[in-house]
Amino acid sequence: MWGAVGVFGFSLSIIVYWVLAMFTDTGPGEFAREISAQMGVKNNLSLTIPATALAFLCACPLGVPVIADSVFGTVLGFAGFFFVLVGLVSFLPVSLPAWMYPEWHVEWRRRRRRERLAEANVWRDTSRLEPGGPSGSAAGCVNGPFDSATTDSFPDSPGDDA
Questions:
Q1: SS3 sequence of the chain
Q2: pLDDT digits (tens, 9 = 90+) for 123-161
Q3: For residue 153, what are the CA distances in angstroms to 110, 124, 145?
Q4: Is the four-CA dihedral 105, 108, 114, 120 of positive or negative sign?
Q5: Which of 34, 30, 28 is nearest to 13 (CA)?
Q6: Where are the domains positioned within the chain?
Q7: Rounded CA gap, 162 and 160, in Å?
């Protein structure tokens, strides 16, 4: 039983490592990519690590005798064996689609970040304004910085506008 818990924890740590390396642009993600690059296997982060983690994840319930003797245990055993085969095939130097590599995800995230930053900063671009026109946030207003709703007196006011 405790062996199954240990294998489950180990598989979760491998999955966290893979997610950090594949899908984050943080310091720990960069560190995980550097470690994987030093291993020298081309498809290390693309196939080897996730297949190994899923094989361990499928194997951890098999440590419980009730599950191991059931149909569910048999299905998990076959799934684990499949992921072991995928892990072994990942050592072959075959090219995978670009989106399966961490470099593609890093570049995609950086491009999306630049696009979002450009979209957010469009309203700050004062070089597009004509001379003598409104500036800053008033440039986007239809009636200038103050429209008729802001110049009217309060509807609750007792009377005369001064």
A1: CHHHHHHHHHHHHHHHHHHHHHHCCCHHHHHHHHHHHHHCCCCHHHHHHHHHHHHHHHHHHHHCHHHHCCHHHHHHHHHHHHHHHHHHHCCCCCCCCHHHCHHHHHHHHHHHHHHHHHHHHHHHCHHHCCCCCCCHHHHHCCCCCCCHHHHCCCCCCCCCCC
A2: 666 565 555 555 555 445 554 444 444 444 445 545 555
A3: 49, 31, 17
A4: negative
A5: 28
A6: 2-106
A7: 6
- What are the pLDDT digits (tens) for 40-75? 777 888 898 999 999 999 888 877 777 777 888 888
Give the closest residue to 22 by CA, choosing from 53, 7, 44, 3.
Answer: 44
CA quadruple 23, 34, 103, 10: dihedral, nearest 10: -40
By residue count, the chain amounts to 162
Q: What is the DSSP code (8-state) at residue 45?
A: I
In whole angstroms, what is the distance from residue 31 CA to residue 48 CA? 18
Closest CA to 53 of 22, 95, 97, 92: 22
Identify residue 11 by its one-letter amino acid code: S
